[in-house]
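Budget justification aside, the reviewers requested a transparent look at the raw inputs and outputs of the sequence design task funded under Objective 1. We therefore reproduce one unedited record. The lines immediately below are the structure tokens for a 484-residue chain.
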């Protein structure tokens, strides 16, 4: 039995390696076990720490008499791996994973009645941290109150995560995203902007201003400004600029920390789109009456890896957004917010010489391409999100138009997977079977559709090599879109 003792001038910052660590004054002689410590009443023997170990200069390793030398060496290694902060040394906080559950925990603390908070507390804090930093959004929601300090109820790690997620930087939008329980990646900026617009539209908080031309505040602060700006930039450039997307992948879906985009960056990457659509839907809901945000988001996204009983409402965002906004309304709002941007002083250089007809053309193209990509076709779950093995060999690209499309059921799983985690596990099992048992290069299907919820608005799971998974569109006589 042994005890590690780390001592320094700031005992509260000592981080022990073992469960039982005694932070004591610098040792000058043999120390008996302190009162109350669960240590046998033996005399502890001081062993000086080597100067080369970068720890507190007064730290020491104490072992019971009679401990074998080999065990002492092991304890020396443990101590060398421990961290004990000296004067003026900052200790990195434990930052929660970038998962929606982490955000729910933060919101639950921020809007707790015990803290005297209200449903607008989190959105106000979000504004101070960087949400709604674009000119159009600020014209609608106003300027933030100022730079905030960490609320005492939040841990340093939670505060660090929140500030990183809500700090607006157009060059790195992936830093503001979290993984949701349905497997989608959501940017928090447009989500919280839509929530604030919904609350204030419903009479909770300061009234929203009347702009000229008139705009829908909910669409303006979530998607319309970003969409109009993106397509306007493309028109002013070589017209081949990326206007929408891309999507991306997480380093670890169980403990997400880093999100990497899978293509050229546009002003409207997929996480921003998803956050914007969710902000519109939840903002419209809140306009009817305020709710605690943690409760609202938990009901919308589910928790953990989703609900075993039913698909969470977030899985239907494309259908519901299309029903609420639609191409015509979206086109109108994109044109309106571009008109607002022209009236701002100083006006945006990008809009200075753009006429009404050009604005209308940009809005029409933006709304059409957005609806085609994010409403009419289902989401695609890339291979990296279900942790696929590499493809064996070289995949063959489809050559449209296709003569035939076969629909085939899988043998396993016999029961539908009802959560993101369960579906990802089923995909890995299927890949192992097709590669290891059948000897195939990969799963023998082009796309898979889990029997989970509404059959017309599913998330397709691609088994083929990620770079060759671009959705192929074929228009039927009824005008419906099939993503293969």
């Amino acid at each position: 039995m042994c005890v590690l003792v780390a001592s320094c001038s700031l005992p509260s910052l000592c981080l022990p390696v073992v469960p039982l660590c005694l932070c004591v004054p610098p040792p000058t002689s043999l120390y008996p076990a302190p009162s109350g410590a669960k240590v046998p009443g033996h005399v502890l023997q001081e062993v000086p720490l080597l100067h080369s170990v970068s720890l507190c200069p007064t730290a020491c390793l104490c072992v019971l008499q009679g401990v074998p030398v080999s065990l002492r060496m092991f304890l020396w290694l443990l101590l060398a791996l421990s961290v004990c902060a000296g004067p003026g040394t900052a200790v990195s906080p434990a930052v929660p994973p970038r998962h929606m559950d982490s955000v729910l925990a933060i919101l639950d603390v921020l809007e707790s009645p015990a803290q005297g908070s209200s449903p607008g507390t989190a959105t106000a804090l979000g504004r101070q941290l960087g949400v709604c930093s674009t000119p159009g959004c600020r014209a609608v929601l106003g300027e933030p109150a100022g730079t905030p300090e960490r609320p005492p109820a939040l841990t340093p790690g939670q505060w660090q995560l929140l500030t990183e997620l809500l700090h607006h930087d157009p060059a790195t939008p992936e830093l503001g995203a979290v993984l949701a329980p349905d497997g989608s990646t959501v940017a928090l900026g447009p989500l919280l902007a839509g929530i604030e617009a919904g609350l204030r539209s419903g009479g909770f908080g300061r009234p929203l201003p009347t702009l000229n031309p008139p705009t829908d505040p909910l669409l303006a602060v979530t998607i319309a400004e970003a969409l109009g700006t993106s397509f306007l930039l493309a028109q002013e450039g070589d017209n081949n600029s990326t206007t929408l997307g891309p999507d991306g992948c997480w380093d670890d879906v169980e403990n997400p920390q880093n999100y990497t985009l899978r293509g050229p960056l546009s002003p409207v990457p997929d996480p921003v789109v998803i956050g914007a659509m969710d902000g519109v839907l939840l903002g419209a809901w809140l306009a009817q009456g305020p709710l605690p945000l943690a409760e609202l988001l938990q009901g919308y996204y589910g928790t953990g890896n989703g609900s075993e009983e039913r698909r969470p409402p977030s899985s239907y965002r494309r259908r519901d957004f299309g029903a609420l906004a639609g191409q015509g309304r979206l086109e109108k709002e994109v044109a309106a917010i571009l008109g607002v941007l022209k009236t701002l002083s100083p006006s945006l250089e990008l809009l200075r010489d753009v006429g009404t007809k050009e604005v209308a053309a940009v809005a029409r193209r933006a709304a059409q391409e957005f609806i085609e990509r994010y409403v009419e076709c289902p989401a695609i779950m890339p291979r990296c999100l279900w942790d696929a093995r590499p493809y064996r060999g070289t995949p063959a690209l489809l050559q449209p138009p296709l003569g035939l499309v076969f629909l085939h059921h899988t043998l396993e799983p016999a029961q539908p997977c009802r959560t993101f985690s369960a579906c990802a596990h089923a995909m890995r099992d299927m890949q192992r079977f097709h590669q290891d048992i059948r000897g195939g290069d990969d799963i023998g299907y082009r796309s898979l559709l889990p029997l989970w919820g509404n059959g017309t608005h599913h998330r397709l799971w691609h088994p083929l090599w990620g770079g060759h998974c671009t959705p192929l569109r074929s228009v039927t006589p009824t005008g419906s879109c099939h993503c293969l």
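The first strand starts at residue 2 and ends at 5. The chain has three domains: 2-84, 100-376, 380-484. Computational costs for records of this kind are itemized in the attached budget.
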